[in-house]
Amino acid sequence: MVGRIFDIQRFCTHDGPGIRTTVFFKGCNLRCAWCHNPESQSSEKQILFHMEKCTGCGRCISPSFDAESFICFNGAKELCGKDYTADEVLGEILKDKMFYDNSNGGVTFSGGECMLQIDFLAEILRLCKENGIRTAVDTAGNVPFEYFERILEYTDLFLYDIKCFDSDKHKLYTGAGNELILENLKRLLTRTQGVWIRIPIIPTVNDTIKEMKSIKSFLSSCKSPERIELLPYHTFGESKYATINRTARTFSTPDQSKIELLKAVFDE
Amino acid sequence: MRFIEPNSERVSFLKNYYMNNSQMVLNRELVPWKCHRSLYLYVEGWLQNVATPTLRLRRSMAEAYMLKNIKPVICPGELIVGQPDFSPFDAEELEKFEEYKIIHSKHMPLCKGRMDHTALDYEKLLEKGVEGVVDELKARIEELDPYDGTLAERYELYQCCIIELEGVLALAENYKNYALELAENAGENEKKEYLELAEVLARVPAKPARSFREALQSIQLFTFSLFGIYSIGRPDQYLLRYYENDINTKALTPAKAQELIDCFYLQYMNNMSAWAAASFMIGGRDGQGNAVENRLTWHFLNAIEHTHTPDPNVGLCITSQTSKEIVEYACELIKKGYGQPQIWNNDGITKSMRERGYDDKASNLFTQSTCVELTPIGCSGVSITSPYINMLNIFLKAFNKCNSTMTFDEIFAVFEKDFEDYLKKVLLLENLYQLERKRNSTDPIRISAFINDCLERGLSSDSGGARYNDIEPNMLGMINVAESLNVIQELVFEKQMLTIDELKAILSSNYEGNEDILAYVRRKISHFGTDTEKTNAIAKRVADTVINLLNKFTTFRGANFVPGAFSYRDHEYHGRYTTASPDGRRAGDILADGSSPVQGYDSKGPTLSLNSTVSWQPLRFLGGISVNIKLSPSVTVEQIMALIDGYIKQNGMQLQFNVVDSDMLKDAQQHPDQYTDLLVRIGGYSDYFTKLPERLQNGVISRAQN
Hints:
The complex is a heterodimer. By secondary structure, chain A is α/β, with parallel strands linked by helices. Chain A has one domain (2-55, 68-267): Aldolase class I (TIM Barrel, Alpha-Beta Barrel), CATH 3.20.20. Helix content of chain A is 31%, strand content 21%. Chain A has 9 helices and 10 strands. In chain A, helix 1 packs across helix 3 (118-130) and helix 7 (209-220) runs parallel beside helix 9 (256-267). The radius of gyration of chain A is 19 Å and the shape is globular. The relative contact order of chain A is 0.15. In chain B, the strands form 5 sheets. In chain B, strands 3-4-5-11-10 form a 5-stranded mixed β-sheet. Chain B has 2 domains: 9-310 and 355-376, Anaerobic Ribonucleotide-triphosphate Reductase Large Chain; 388-449 and 459-597, no CATH class. The longest helix of chain B has 33 residues, at 152-184. Chain B is α/β, with parallel strands linked by helices. Chain B contains 28 helices and 13 strands. The A-B interface holds A 9-11, 13, 18-19, 57, 71, 73-75, 95-96, 98-103, 105 and B 515-517, 519-520, 523-524, 531, 604-608, 610-611, 636, 638-639, 641-643, 645-647, 649-650, 706.
């Protein structure tokens, strides 16, 4: 069994407590308009093309071109997505163990939607626990609840996205309604305390007090999560769209005072 | 508990004053041991003392003459004094100086090899005072049997030390008189300060220190008088009783003590040129192995924040008992971009020193002698960076003898043989240099009175009187060799993209017309620095080779050759003449800066970079390593702490950080005026970024930022 991974980032501080190693799974079943990892969406391996680095040498348009073995000398074309066995991923994670142990950190599985590769995810989570590594799963929750049940035992923390409360709007911006997502969250909270709710703040989409109040009122009908975080939209992902020949949908970045205002809704 | 004091007005004033007036700061080409005035006086003293029975005595007479005549320098507001006089010559002096320079270089016996770079027994200085040591020497002479001619060398040593130490007493007397002179013409407040200063100088370094200020002043004046680079060891240990006594008797407040330490730091800057470092360590353990962490440890860290100067080079020694609070504070300083303190794995080094035969006390009480080269305190005749060896150059010459029929192991064997042959030549030469130092050392001989067991053995440090006499050759480009072998293994043997002969041709063309291959090597090879088993194994094999080969040799005194693998500025200098190498380095390019992966090849983050470094077991390299990690200013204190923790737990050795933004560094290259205070770590030391040559600046910029 292999998992398809498109990146392993080390020394992260934004995906859970302490210092973390974040493993990014390839493939997602949502298409969020603001996605900052557009190369994560397709579950297929893809060639990313960095036009600015291309010298037009022409090696990549020869008939013998083969994406798997081809090497662009200039780094203009790179293959995104690599298949790993669970042991290989574990090996990569263990390299950092000494550095996150004291910080209460660990590994975070993100994506894409890591839960879509549930068999692989369950396996690697189990291996991590066997090796004494704290685990987190970053999910949008748009999967059958059985998937959660399969990994609950091995997962210390869920980073769970709520993008907006209204299902039609959710569908408009992400391609899917949110009934399953919210229901899963409610059920998940009855099973574990280790959940951080994460709300991306996207101007013109969900950056209103009304929206926050709806989410808050939904959450008050659930068992309470460990933490609620607001993640302001940022533009770091925009340049990646060109590499997969797509046009980024751009949003403005919310200012700090707005974030404080929205945060205050949850502190009331 | 955290102990942090505010910065004082005096310290801000002095910093500003020195930045605008100190010759050492303004002219980074100056070096204290080539101070024109001290050289002038030394030669003058040499010419005036012709009728001495030995050259060694003549040299000490010249040294004493210099000390007696060097003009004191006291700047407004100084609490701790003692710095070289860099005032310009008048026309007559200048004319003489031209003549003196010729006499010095052509007619006075000089010896080659590493001078100074040791750590004296400052406890002895503080407890006995210079007069006390002179008394000891006189008593030793008294005891010599006048009928026993074999004691002549002993007599010479003691007599030379006395002559020089009397020079130091005269120097202190001149400083005191100058302070009194300044007091006479000063206003009411300044008068009081100058009189206090004169009182301190009347006491030390002649007599035992009674107060914390006297102790600091004694160290400063004595060290300055040596016009060289000396580590002051572990000041938070031997200064503690003076500090605590003053605090208990209310003669001193923590804030006032901080101000004194800050002034002491600033005076370091006036005494140390660019390209060099004057160092000490704090924390760690005492001679008996007890963990040390006290108020002075905090004060000495705190002073980094107040003074923000390239020197002193402060090392924080981490033990299994070091508190989280003090590491956290050190990391806050690192995050602010001070480039200080360096981090040292105290317990790991102690273990490694024991294995090399140092006794318990010496292996607990070590210090970096300047940048990172380790030496025991108060008993060391260890000769550091002797010599510098450009391993990459040796490797390239060996590689040139290889051909396409050879296996990887055969290539390695050719290198190993050439390296060994090179060592035979260069270590013999080093032993000859050292032999000449024994006969003709130009170091001030009085340091031997503060290095055990010189006086007991009746031999100066250069003559073999010191308890420990290892020689630490320094391996430059060791990492480039490992990376080159790594590239050869992947390109030639695994992927079979090139043959050895093809690769040799590409190197001799300096990658011209083979930019594709160059790009491939730089971008696509799995580099040393990304913590893969294969790359780590090659680096370990190279490091093992260094250790094993050096173990075959002994020094001219029968001691060990113990390697270091760091660079201060030499990766730039030695890069100039080194031809293109398989690691994607073009002819003339800078070498790797010390012990870290090749610049830019640590692209998968600091954790994997550090894992790669520990994989070759750097603790064996007591000659010093410097591991550079560049972090973006957005790094958190928690992250820096995690790096230190993980690195030390895995038997790392030394670690230093540049927390700077590459864009900012590029901007500083364009607008140096706006960045006069910007400090960066180079090899083992810190310097002002805008005062570095461009190639070294680029070396700092090209290290991968995480």
